[in-house]
Structure formats: structure tokens, C-alpha cells
Amino acid sequence: MGGFVEAVLERVREARARLEAAHEADDAYEVALAADELDDALRLARRYDIGTEDEGSQQ
């Protein structure tokens, strides 16, 4: 995998982890920020045709 692809996938993984942690902490503000980050990361992945695991379960 190229460096760009791996960086995009890592961004998606980190955003998903941050979103999950925010949900567990019941922090609505952090959930909103993490959801936006995840949306941006997934949009970037789609733009460059980079497959991500569990694309359907964003939130």
C-alpha cells in the first residue's frame, strides 16, 4: 500500500475510535466533532477509491 492510502485508512480508523469513545463517554459535543472527522475521512477515501472496512456503519 502506498503511503497516502495508509494515511487515509489510519485517519478513518482513528476517527472511528474517537467517535466510539465519545459515544461511550456520552459527550454530545465530542460525538459531533468525531462524526464530522469521520465523514471527512470517508469522503476522502471515496474520492480516491480507497476501500474502508464497515463503510456502512459510520455512527
Keywords for this entry:
single chain, about 60 residues, mainly alpha, 2 helices, about 0% strand
Condensed summary:
With 59 residues, the protein is mainly alpha-helical. The chain has helices at 3-25, 28-47. It has two helices and no strands.
Strand-helix topology:
Elements: H1 3-25, H2 28-47
Helix pairs in contact: 1-2
Give a structural overview.
There is one protein chain. The chain is mainly alpha-helical. Helices cover 73% and strands 0% of the residues. The chain is elongated, with a radius of gyration of 12 Å. It starts with a helix and ends in a 12-residue tail after the last helix.
Number of strands: 0
Distance between the termini: 27 Å
Low-pLDDT ranges = none
Name the overall outline.
Answer: elongated
Radius of gyration: 12 Å
Average pLDDT confidence is 91
β-sheet strand percentage: under 5%
- The topology string of helices and strands comes to HH
Largest pleated sheet: none
User: How much helical structure, as a percent, in the residues?
Assistant: over 70%
Which assembly state applies to the chains in this document? single chain
**SS class:** mainly alpha
Query: How many H/I helical runs?
Result: 2
